[in-house]
Amino acid sequence: MTQRILPFDGVENFRDFGDYGAGRGRLRKGFLYRSAHHAHATEADLEAMAGLGLRTIVDLRRVNERQRDPSRRWTGFDAEVIDNDIGESTEDPWMEFIRTSDLTAESFRGHAHEFYERAPYEQRHIDLYARYFAALARAEGPLLIHCAAGKDRTGILAALTHHLAGVADDDLIADYLLTNDSARIEARAPHVARLIAEVAGHAPSDQAVRVAMGVEARYLEIALAAMAATSGSVDAYIETVLGVDGAMRSSIEARLLA
Questions:
Q1: Beta carbons of 251 and 141 less than 8 angstroms apart
Q2: What is the pLDDT of residue 92?
Q3: What angle in degrees, to the nearest 10, is found between the helix axes of 169-176 and 217-231?
Q4: Contact indicator for 212, 109 with CB cutoff of 8 Å
């Protein structure tokens, strides 16, 4: 599974989330990508991204995140960019949590549980997810979705894509858990620990940093359960909340399946 992870120098968690068996075929390889933000992309990274032929980029970050870490683009960039400024507050919720947290592994895990339960029905996510699926329905080339770390907001959207296409639950979860790449976490953990300590004024434990950087299957299960509890099912959420009707779903499947 690790061959899905693409080697970039300054962009973390970059991977192809296609090429899985799906309901009526197999997801195309080289068509669906996900990653963390692109603010630290090297020139070699930009050249590599240009080579992927990306036609749509969905930036799931808040406006303050985009301003803090503006995306780098390659020469001749002409892809569609989907983002929004809906529901902005004066402070990034993640930063607010760090500033007030005791920085234990349990607090990071509890914060994740709360986020995944509410995320599917936050208006800014509904707008971005709906616009992503609309773009996917008309896509003439590869798409990339990303947020800050490429794990939570991105993870939910990738899982919804897999669900819509009929990817098996085991594969859906396995793909989500690829964020827990041990080499990436070991390399980046000291840097993340320093950033957290600068905001909070005290240092997190090593275990807490690894929880903060990773994901757990339970997180995604919470999000999917919230959709089912409120909308009746994940399929009903995709249709009634995100506006993916039968015709759009058929168009998406035609583009996704090899």
A1: no
A2: 79
A3: 130
A4: no
Q: Which residue has the tokens 């800014």?
A: 124
Number of domains in the chain: 1
Weakly modelled stretches of the chain, pLDDT under 50: 1
b/e 84-93 (16+ beta carbons within 10 angstroms → b): beeeeeeebe
How far are the Cα atoms of 89, 121, 151 from residue 148, in angstroms, in the given order? 17, 19, 8
Q: What CATH number is associated with residue 213?
A: 3.90.190.10
Phi, psi angle pair for 56, to nearest 5°: -140, 135
CA distance 72 to 77: 10
* Residues of the domain holding 225: 2-256
Quote the pLDDT of residue 90. 58
Cβ 83 vs Cβ 127: under 8 Å: no
Asked whether 57 and 144 are in contact (CB, 8 A), the reply is yes
Mind telling me the catalytic residues?
147
For the full predicted model, state whether its pTM sits above 0.90. yes
Supply the pLDDT for residue 18.
Answer: 97
Residue 144 tokens read as: 């990339």
The predicted structure's pLDDT at residue 1: 45
